[in-house]
Amino acid sequence: MRPFEEKLTAWFDGKLSAEEARSFLKDYPSALEEKAEFLKLRQLLRQGLESRVLEHPDFFNAQIMAQIMRESVQRRSLRRGWLGLPQIAWGGVGALSLGFAMFVALIPHGDLSDPRSGYVADVLKTKTHDPNVKATVDNQKNMTIIKVEGLHKVPPEKDLNH
Amino acid sequence: MNEVETRASKLEAGCSAIDAGEPDDVDLVKRCQAGDSSAFNDLVTRYRGKVFTMIYGMVQNEQDAWDLAQEGFLKAWKSIHRFKGESSFYTWLYRIMTNVTIDSLRRKGIRGEAEFDDRIAAVDVEPGSRTTPSSVPLPNKKLEHREIRQRIDEAIAKLSPEHRAVIVMKEIEDLQYNEIAEILSCSLGTVMSRLFYARKKLQSMLKDLYETL
User: Fold this and answer.
1) Fold of B114-212
2) Distance between CA B22 and CA B130 in Å, rounded?
3) Which terminus of chain B is less hemmed in, N or C, by CB atoms within 10 Å?
């Protein structure tokens, strides 16, 4: 069951059914008088408050739209800022790749620790392609002896006696 | 017909197909959700008068009402992508506006006078009690409109933010109980109870005024 104040309010605002309203008025006959007062109050409130009109309505809109535009621009620039980080990262990766490519292309490679090794390798390359063939270098006074071991035979094109 | 009255009659039409040829709220909201700020401008135009009147009724200060209405519309724009159409747009908008206004009043420490607080009302107010005239002397000439408004403003200023909200929404906006309950996120019983005590208090403060009109 609804408390009195809820019933009275509902009755004022026409929210009670006919039967509920009859029953309510039977219990509280003074409610009729109260309703008359309440209607005067409602009229006063509507008269006093409804007359309040928004002045300069176009300026009101303009301010809101300007604020929306400002925030939209800020959001976009913020988003651009965030997108700049991956761009920087990709740029870094690109620069490293380029540096590596230049290193591979321009810097000479091979075992440069002992010039003789290169010389021996050249001799072997000239004499044979067999990886089992070995060469040793023996530095003597006024001469260098290169011994080549493992050759089965001297290839015809390398045979100086041929 | 001024702007407020125009808006009121449009609201009574259910906010659908506001005028022949004008897009309804649903269309405008969809365009807003797609990022069309000009559609939001149309919604602001449609509701600014009602919203301003409602907020002014609660804060009784034009500058505050202007600022709060702007704040409310900006909040609505920012959260419009969350609007799912479960309630009408204006109910959703009013909820934002009411929350913004009540928060502002609370920040200013406005709580209303305790004697009509819902929680203790049963102790302080006899349900069948008659309203008593204010101690303010009866005017012997018709009050100017400005004075009437000032008296109403003063009376409403003595209500709690929640009581102000129900009075404005019911007496000025003529919203239904269920709409008010939805906007304020409370039960129907609470809406009726708040209306009862808010009206009682206003009657006690304004009786001399409405008796002379």
Assistant:
1) Arc Repressor Mutant, subunit A (1.10.10)
2) 49
3) N
